[in-house]
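Morning!

This is the sequence you dropped in the shared folder:
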Amino acid sequence: MPTPSAPRRPDFKYLAASGLLGFVLGAFVVASLGNLSGLRAKRIAVTAITATPLAPLAEPAKLPPATAIDEPPNAVVEVPSPTSGRTGVIPPNAPEAMDLTARRLTIPVSGFPADKLVRSYHEARSGQREHEAIDILAPRNTPVVAVEDGTIAKLFNSKAGGITLYQFDPGNQYSYYYAHLERYADGIKEGDRVRRGQILGYVGTSGNAPKETPHLHFAVYRLTADKHWWEGTPIDPYDILR
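The structure's back. Tokens below.
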């Protein structure tokens, strides 16, 4: 009786080929499923986006405009100074200037005679700007007084203007700006109501004032409808103080 032969073992190369074919088919199936999942996810995302109303775009924050007293590099770190919203100087024959002239404002440096004032509004300053104020030279610590009744709108320490004070007139139409002070008067604070001739501070050289030339930098401007203490249209102080 013949002896049964041992079962023949499959050739290794056929096994390898079958395995490779199975791997390729498996990868194709996985990739197909992945593509289907990706398409399904995209459809879901598109549906969610179209079903959700778009929120209104927020207006980007605006940087403060460049200052007239501070140097331009300081504009991004300091609150703007009074003439940042100007639309042009108010001429001396304009109703606003004539109104202020009729008020006979007090000279803001105690004891300084009106006939000694010097016009300097249009003098050139660094950064291709005009002075837009009047400088009143006086000994250090000479009292600086309110030109009329009003309210202290802001006490502000500026890199260029130094120790400064903004005063609104009684009707909140105009702002008076006092700069380069040596210090404020004792007890003065924002919101205070002040009287004509009341001491607000003292002449000095704070900010970028020459240290050997104490003086008051004094500016006047008409406020905008928003009544911002830093924003307005300038008026030459010389014409309304003389």
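Headline: Helices lie at 12-51, 95-102, 237-241.

More detail when I'm at my desk.
O.
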